[in-house]
Design brief:
With 284 residues, the protein is of the alpha+beta class. Helices cover 44% and strands 10% of the residues. Helix 1 (4-12) packs parallel to helix 3 and helix 4 packs across helix 7 (133-156). The structure holds flavin mononucleotide.
Length: 284
């Protein structure tokens, strides 16, 4: 029996304002819906997997689920690289500086893809007039939605997953390894397999500062972030502080200090604009 109220409490550290269990029991949720919602509420990322393979039948089904995601104007401007060759997986893991991904039974790279639509225009004798920032955004969103559909489906089947933005760390080398042509850019990798580690639910920011009713309002932000830092720290303190040599050792090290330190330095995933421009993206 699913307890969505408990799941929401575990996610945020406080009870939802409504007794969702009682209220939803009165409504007409179809059979299986509460279990599906509970699964999403309790999700977490996994980075260590057993050796048990993921069957071709399950892989095929999950990839079909990924392709069932909505896509802007039905243009489906993304591609998914399904890495099977252990040597290639190892080479990608090395480029990403992320050793554990090589051992994932399923390793995918989700890519935005303007090339296919450009070719379709060519095939049908029309110009391709949408190589813009908006096209880039559409392709990135399509790819992200397909990745999220894959994650939710894989987790429903009992697999664990973790996204890997590190595939953007060395873009030209990753593109060469995966034979990515012009018009195709990786947004993230996705490792999946049967979990072989215990992970906690990560507390999320309170809905009061993420969900804005009718109009954006972050008037209460500072106090709510302080509160979030405290409740999250009480549940699971963060481990190592980022760069204490530069920033000092904080007596209290909450989520916001960690986030701010992370954002205080340029990301090691730079070089996206140069990569895109070298790959035929006009970003006009
Ligand atoms: C787009 C994206 C990229 C990510 N890249 C990485 C990554 O490169 N390495 C990693 O260990 N985790 C990565 N993650 C996982 C996040 O760290 C994780 O989702 C976050 O810490 C929250 O934890 P949870 O998923 O268990 O709730 C990524 C997540 C997203 C959505």
């Amino acid at each position: 029996m699913s307890d969505l109220k408990a799941d929401i409490q575990a996610r945020f550290g406080f009870e939802p304002p409504l007794d969702v269990n009682a209220e939803l029991a009165q409504s007409d949720l179809p059979p299986g819906a509460a279990a599906a919602l509970s699964n999403i509420l309790a999700r977490r990322s996994y980075r260590r997997f057993t050796d048990q393979p993921v069957s071709e039948a399950l892989r095929t089904t999950l990839l079909a689920c990924a392709q069932s995601a909505p896509a802007k104007s039905d243009l489906q401007q993304y591609s998914i690289l399904d890495l099977r060759d252990p040597a290639k997986k190892a080479a990608l893991a090395e480029l990403c500086d992320t050793a554990w991904m090589a051992d994932a039974p399923v390793l995918l790279v989700f890519c935005g893809d303007l090339r296919r639509a450009q070719k379709v225009c060519e095939m049908r004798g029309h110009p391709h007039a949408q190589n813009t920032q908006d096209s880039f955004m559409n392709a990135a969103v399509d790819a992200a939605l397909a990745m999220q559909a894959m994650i939710i489906s894989a987790e429903a089947a009992g697999l664990g997953c973790c996204c890997i933005s590190q595939v953007r760390k060395r873009l030209p080398e990753v593109a060469a390894l995966l034979n990515l042509p012009d018009g195709v850019f990786p947004i993230a990798g996705l490792a999946a397999g049967w979990p072989d580690e215990a992970r906690d639910v990560t507390r999320r920011l309170p809905p009061s500062i993420v969900v804005h009713r009718d109009a954006y309002d972050d008037g209460g932000l500072a106090a709510e972030i302080d509160q979030y830092d405290q409740t999250r720290h009480a549940a699971r303190p963060l481990g190592n502080q980022i760069n204490p040599e530069k920033f000092g050792t904080a007596a209290f090290y909450g989520w916001s200090e960690n986030a701010a330190r992370r954002l205080a330095e340029p990301s090691d995933l730079g070089g996206l604009r140069e990569f895109l421009e070298s790959r035929g993206f006009e970003l006009a």
